């Protein structure tokens, strides 16, 4: 029994969760939003028009009914004055006309004299009583007054009764007429318009659904293309030009897809290069070891020579592994940075002092030019690694008797280091790829110049960690300029 209770409870929780999820997903649907917007845009004006139409009809109908009754009242007021009905209200002709008017409009007529006493009442209820009201007072002063009571459905008209000279007000004719006929007509109009609104709602809903389906169709095709990418790169690029927005989205998607393909190719090339760089020293060590094992009574001189070669291959392997480990550390999502205020001038001078012996072997001149002292918040170890790699590359890929120039400048927000050389240069089309790991511009000369092909990648990663930027371009001397731009104040994100 308990198990069944828990089972039903679990099913209810699951069903409730699914309903909430579907409800949430439905509310986030672009199609639903479009349908709702179109429905609101179509229905709200219709409802407003319905109310306006009915109110205008009511106002116009009351105005016409009031004008009709006022005309009749004016005629009867003249007859009352001429027949001296206020003094002798027993005239059967006038009584009959007053009663007939009251019956026609389903209302009530009272005649009030100048002392506010009721001399005639078609209901015969208030005869002889005194009536003092705002409308009667206005009419006694010679001003006709009308009042419409929509809640109780009647119109009240107070008409002054003048003497034959139209100078003195002798009394007031107070007329109340029913507006039930107007109310019934309004009810019929409301019913008809409500039916029309329901029909229009259904039609608008169908149109909105069709429009919504058509509008979201291009996005569905974009979604299908994106889902295809998750299953494996698709060779077909997206060309969805139904709307300006989908065209922009298609362009952005194609750029992303192209970038992903480039990254995938780069990753495959990186794996192949890593395998090659690690396998080459191992192969050499294997050959040397097998040579030693294949010989008996190896002379000490030859044994020492082979051991020297093995040591060099191990050093080469160690350099590659250390560079790879450095890249792994720099590529971490949240790498550890030791940010401290550093004198950039002194940092660059220390790097150049350390590399001058290397440059002197090929008679390459190292020049440092600064436009002023620069203090910045940086990680000294990582930034020294970046600038060392860039300057060392300028020495490696240079001509004998050449030069490498380091220029330091700063403004209120950034400091800039430009490393220029008179070396072999980099083709413009290769500019975007030189920061890829193990990438060499001149494959044929990669064996002539020592290195792992990871230096520029390490330098770029270190610069990016400081929220900086690095760019490369050729210079007028056929060499290369590396432009590094780093903020003076480190801002953690």
UniProtKB/TrEMBL annotation:
Report the EC number(s), separated by commas if there are several.
2.7.13.3
Please indicate if the UniProt record lists ATP-binding as a keyword. Answer: yes
Q: Which keywords does this Swiss-Prot/TrEMBL entry list?
A: ATP-binding, Kinase, Membrane, Nucleotide-binding, Phosphoprotein, Transferase, Transmembrane, Transmembrane helix, Two-component regulatory system
According to its UniProt record, where is this protein located? Membrane
Q: Indicate whether GTP-binding appears among the record's keywords.
A: no
UniProt enzyme class: transferase
> Which parts of the sequence belong to the Histidine kinase domain?
273-490
GO MF: ATP binding
Q: Which Gene3D superfamilies match?
A: 1.10.287.130, 6.10.340.10, Histidine kinase-like ATPase, C-terminal domain
Q: What is this protein called?
A: histidine kinase
Instruction: Give the species.
Output: Ohessyouella blattaphilus
